[in-house]
Amino acid sequence: MKHTVMTILTAITFFNGSIAQAAEFDPSTKAQAVQQGLQIVEKASFDEVLIGDLDALTEVNHIYIAELNTADLSIDKPSSTRTIAKDWELDQQEIQGLQALYIKTVSKKLALKGNFNIVDRPTENSLNIYASLVHLDPIAPRDNFESRGFQERYFTQGSGEMTVSFKVDYQGETVLLAIDEITAGNNWIENKQFNNKHNARTVFSRLAGRLGKQLDLI
């Protein structure tokens, strides 16, 4: 449901958040993973998870977290936009900011909960975590002058949905594939950069916790 309040100077628009749908890997990715010995896990922490042999991970004490990959990112334009909004795109500065936020948040979560050393490059015995930001489904237009009308403000239930996939390697073998579409916040907020960054940080922290539990690391 959408409620719009108009004043002389400001347009304030309210959008309900939507419920995230389950994400899954494409059939060829799953088939290849199964051939490599990974097994699909039912009732997992993620929308879809394939796991290999985790026995050797009891010896892990170093974790390498790769930069968040955004090469294949797709972004939906909010369907209920009534403004001058252009297609939703992230510029290079925003991508770098998101990547830095991801590294900082996931490193902190895993180091704190699992007592691991975070290393800045893969080593012979490090657990290597590779993540890709696959899809963004924002609720409101970007918070900038090009995408919103003059003094136009948005209040939304969360910031939208994010889909993130993970590939975890250990000693040259893939031990986990996971993908999840997750809601970025459920509280009503003013949809602006500061609040959206907070919601993204919360998403990364939740995903890191799920990853740690799925790997029996925390």
Describe the 3D structure:
The structure is a single chain. The protein is α/β, with parallel strands linked by helices. It is built from 3 helices and 12 strands, in the order E-E-H-E-E-E-E-H-E-E-E-E-E-E-H. The chain has helices at residues 27-35, 92-114, 193-214; strands spanning 2-6, 11-15, 39-40, 48-51, 62-65, 74-75, 117-119, 127-138, 152-157, 160-170, 173-183, 188-190. The strands form 2 sheets. Strands 3, 4, 5, 6, 7, 8, 10 and 11 form an 8-stranded mixed sheet that branches. Strand 10 and strand 11 (173-183) form a beta hairpin.
Category by helix and strand content: alpha/beta
Report how far apart the termini are. 40 Å
Helix percent band = 10-25%
What is Rg? Answer: 19 Å
Low-pLDDT stretches are 1-10
The largest pleated sheet is described as: 8 strands, mixed
Approximate strand percentage: 25-35%
Mean pLDDT: 84
Total beta-strand segments: 12
**What is the ordering of alpha helices and beta strands?**
EEHEEEEHEEEEEEH
Shape descriptor reads globular
Number of helices: 3
How is this structure best summarized?
The chain is an alpha/beta fold. Helix content is 25%, strand content 31%.
Q: How do the strands and helices of this protein lay out in sequence?
A:
Blueprint (H helix, E strand, L loop, with lengths): L1 E5 L4 E5 L11 H9 L3 E2 L7 E4 L10 E4 L8 E2 L16 H23 L2 E3 L7 E12 L13 E6 L2 E11 L2 E11 L4 E3 L2 H22 L4
Parallel strand pairs: 2-9, 5-7, 5-8, 6-8
Antiparallel strand pairs: 1-2, 3-4, 4-11, 8-10, 9-12, 10-11
Task: Give keywords.
alpha/beta, eight-stranded mixed sheet, 25% helix, 3 helices, four-stranded mixed sheet, disordered N terminus, 218 residues
